[in-house]
Amino acid sequence: MNTPAAGANAAAETLSEEAVDALGRAHATATATPPHRHDALLSERAANIKQSAVRDVFEISMQPGLVSLAGGNPYLQSLPLERLGATAAAIIAEHGLEALQYGGGQGTLELRTQICEVMAAEGIPDADPENVVITAGSQSAQDVAAKVFCNPGDVILLEDPTYVGALNTFEAYEVDVQPVAGDGHGIIPSLLRERIAALQAAGKRIKLLYTIPNFNNPSGVMLAPERRQEIVDICREANILVVEDNPYGLLKFDGVLPAPLRAANPEDVLYLGSFSKIFAPGLRIGWALVPAHLKQRYYLASEAVTLCPPTFNQMLVSDYLRNYDWMGQISTYRKLYEERCTALLAALDEFMPDGVTWTRPEGGFFVWLTLPEGIDTYPLLYKGIDAGVVFVPGAAFSAAEGPSNKLRLAFSAVPPESLREGVRRLAPVLAEAIAA
Ligand code: PMP
User: Fold this and answer.
1) How far apart are CA 430 and CA 89, in angstroms?
2) Residue located nearest, by CA, to atom 11 of ligand 1
3) Model pTM score
4) Where do the Aminotransferase class I/classII large domain residues begin and end (predicted)?
5) C-alpha distance from residue 45 to each of 29, 32, 48, 97, 173 (Å)
6) Which of 91, 138, 177, 387 could bridge across to 399 with cysteines, CB 3.0–4.6 Å?
7) What is the 139 CA–ligand 1 centroid distance (Å)?
8) Interface pTM (ipTM) of the complex?
9) Whether the predicted pLDDT of 350 surpasses 60
10) Burial level of 162, CB count in 10 A (0-12/13-18/19+)?
11) Are 117 and 321 in contact (CB under 8 A)?
12) Centre of ligand 1 from the C-alpha of residue 247, in Å
């Protein structure tokens, strides 16, 4: 009988070779393009820029028949598309060519002022629009941070695991990325202290601590409120600037969000925000709230990269914040992601073999699985594809070298029934690896 599951498995079987090829191609492009005389012209920095493992599996994830638990795309279907179309047309009608012209390098005052309202909802009531720099997403804000603060060889501490895009950005600046271990409640302050002391004793210059305190990508973990101030204090004592990346904060499923690290520490925290997860990522509008004494340098570095943030997109976001129920939209997103997270956790409870553990996020997009020590999840990716499911192996998310017994599942873009089916397919793959 051709049940839906059997059909999907058959599709997965016929696809697997192609899919594995796609993965191979992605790696080949990243690591082994044919030699060319221009290779001699390449910077050492360029050699450090790697293709992200998430991008590697992205191509595969698109294949029909596979359940992709790999990509952490926001689910945008609940946006009022028709109305947004009318707004876009009205912006051109009202602002004319100004909407298509260059603008100020820091971003419009109107949007910077509105962003301060968004940050008030995130727990920062006192932000000054003067210290906000609008960027092409939080991604470019991270890039500017590395550019402003880091010379080659300087250390950036990253909570482990961490966002793969940040790792890639920092490595491109020839930074020495160093992991700081966390647990189910985020960075462990005593380990941070030890790590800083050890690196300083080895003569290293530590510049930044990059952290995602709310619903970390990939782990889904939220930094415990009682650890937050201690972490900033440790960094302040060591003269390390904290880079707090908070794109998921407003997506806490319910309850009160703990105060951001920036809230009580305006001098010691560079705070990064984004409309990618609370509105739409394709607009590429994010921001940095910069300590006042660093604002000028940060702003000039940002301007040197992009000249100015996109004028039209800023107008669209401004109109959205002015005229739409943006908080209502965030509530819709929260409810949707909570439903999906609940479905994924229920499926894990139902299907996962003994020996596998996972996080239970209170917000965001991701669940992080841990297999027994000694199992490398990278080769399991291929087995997963054969079984019709795609995930991202854990090694991609660590500044530490070597294999990882972890893997990331993203629930944001997948309907509940497919989440269950994906986990049902994944379970035997992991069970076989554990039994081997
Ligand atoms: N930071 C984190 C933790 C992320 O997960 C992502 C994207 N998934 C980004 C930054 C990049 O977001 P943006 O679209 O704002 O550049």
Assistant:
1) 51
2) 139
3) 0.92
4) 80-426
5) 17, 16, 5, 38, 6
6) 177
7) 6
8) 0.99
9) yes
10) buried
11) yes
12) 6
